[in-house]
Amino acid sequence: MKILAILLSLSLALLAGCTDSQDDAAVADANRATTGDDQPAAEAAHGDPHGGESGQATAAPAVSGEVLETMDAASYTYVKLQTADGELWAAGPQTPVQVGETIELGQGMLMPDFHSTELDRTFDEIWFVGGFAKAGGAQMDAVSRELQNAHAGLGQKVDESIDVSRAEGGQTVAGIYELDAGDAVLVRGKVVKANYDIMGSNWYHIQDGTGSGASADITVTSQARVNVGDVVLVEGELSLDRDFGAGYRYDRIVEDAELTDDTL
């Protein structure tokens, strides 16, 4: 992973040189800082929070604050925070952030007089960080990116052509939304999306043609490996209000379920 981070940082730096994109260059610097492989760049600032020159960087302190403003540009999220010491701007990998919530900044570097070509805006000072974290929570970096990849575009598509018969003694997908935490789940449905090896498990979205909107789809994690299009029998226990951070919260999810291919 460390080698991959170094190669990614070098790639971003080369891309910045080719495109003259200050946004990419700054994020590449922050990525190198978070890996611990570019300490001389941080030390060169001698602790001066302004870095001494335009574009020079120094290591970021531990900072938390309330989000006053946020915007996305390219693959980055920009946030304006109200901290104990005043307002500041920070940017990092694109992350779901909401105005009013309190977040913490990961490691990063300060860029004075930074001009964002994507936003066509100049910031007097902005921290480029390796990630954001919920206050008191885990950093929204590797985990949040895995979840984003696993669930990008979901919660939105309901396949109205699906019509799967109810399991004997079980529930429909819509019926799961009437259960309580800890209740046994037995449901037959069709796999509409599958992502493998995310946080040590396989993640599936199951539909059976019942319900509407959110209640037409149930998220299931399992060690079993099945394919999109398979009709499966899901057996497990229902969990409520599971929050994995970075905006990924599930009102209902069946974790560590047993999945049996039930395709006729």
Condensed summary:
Helix content is 19%, strand content 40%. The protein contains five helices and 13 strands.
Description of the molecule:
It is a single chain. This protein is an alpha+beta fold. It folds into 2 domains: 2-140, Beta Barrel (OB fold (Dihydrolipoamide Acetyltransferase, E2P)), CATH 2.40.50.140; 157-261, Nucleic acid-binding proteins (OB fold (Dihydrolipoamide Acetyltransferase, E2P), Beta Barrel), CATH 2.40.50. Helices cover 19% and strands 40% of the residues. The longest helix has 18 residues, at 2-19.
Helix-strand sequence: HHHEEEEEEEEHHEEEEE
The coarse overall form would be: elongated
Helical amount: 10-25%
Structural class: alpha+beta
Number of continuous helical runs? 5
Q: How many strands, which pairing sense, and closed or not: the largest β-sheet?
A: 8 strands, mixed
Strand content: 35-45%
The CATH C-level class name of the largest domain: Mainly Beta
Task: Name the poorly predicted regions.
Answer: 1-22, 27-60, 152-156
C-alpha-based Rg, rounded: 22 Å
Strands in their spatial order, largest beta sheet = 5-6-3-2-1-4-7-8
